[in-house]
Amino acid sequence: MGAIKDLVDLVTKLSDSVQDRKFAAELREIQRMIGSILSEHAELHESRIALMTDNEKLKKDIPALKARISELEKENFKLLDPPNTAPPSEEDIALMRLLVHPNAKIAASSLAKSLNVSLPLFDYKADLLRSAGFIYVHHNGDFELRYSLSKKGQKFLFEKGLLG
Predict the structure, then answer these.
(1) Backbone angle region of 83, left / alpha / beta, with phi > 0 → left and psi within -120 to 50 → alpha
(2) How far is CA 138 from CA 32, 88, 97, 104, 142, in A?
(3) What whole-number distance in Å separates Cα of residue 124 and Cα of residue 81?
(4) What CA–CA distances, in Å, run from 75 to 69, 147, 156?
(5) Is the pTM above the cut of 0.70?
(6) Whether 56 contacts 48, CB under 8 Å
(7) Residues 143, 148, 150, 151: is their CA dihedral positive or negative?
(8) What is the C-alpha separation between 101 and 104, in angstroms, rounded?
(9) Which of 4, 30, 35, 37 is nearest to 15 (CA)?
């Protein structure tokens, strides 16, 4: 916008000018400024065309990217929620019910004792429940694993009417 103001100022000077030499110099300056403005306009037009081309390319890429995101979300869901090959047994349900209390992170040895099973058998059953997504395993500083009920485990117990 500064170039346009300068152009107006020069035109005003031109109209006030009476000497031929000064008039010619001001006309040359006006022509130089017009050339500069035209050059800037051409650059802006080229930039606009390049941006429009890039925009069209991006519009074409969006559906493919959305499809890929959908595929990845499905893969992620499968990884986070592996299929349960068998429904939880009565022993599994008993274990989950011990973990119902909010913020419960109960040690493996305490859970095995409450269920009256050996620690190796408990570890095996807990690993199956963990891989099915029904419980979480927490590693503590005392090197004993602790367990808590997952949202999926809570939902299972709720649907079976076993919460409460």
Answers:
(1) beta
(2) 76, 21, 18, 11, 11
(3) 19
(4) 10, 26, 23
(5) no
(6) no
(7) negative
(8) 5
(9) 30
Residue carrying the six token digits 């859970």: 111
What pLDDT is recorded for position 108? 86
Taking only the tens place, the pLDDT of each residue in 71-117 is 887 777 666 555 555 678 888 888 888 888 777 788 888 888 988 99
Structure-token pair, residue 22? 């000064």
Rounded to the nearest angstrom, the gap between the alpha carbon of residue 131 and the centroid of all alpha carbons in its chain is 26
Give Cβ neighbours of residue 126 (< 8 Å, ≥ 6 apart). 95, 108, 111, 135, 137, 145, 147
Radius of gyration over alpha carbons of the chain, in Å? Answer: 38
H or E segment at 136? strand 135-139
Amino acid at 31: Q
What residues contact residue 156 under an 8 Å CB cut-off, 6+ apart? 88, 96, 134
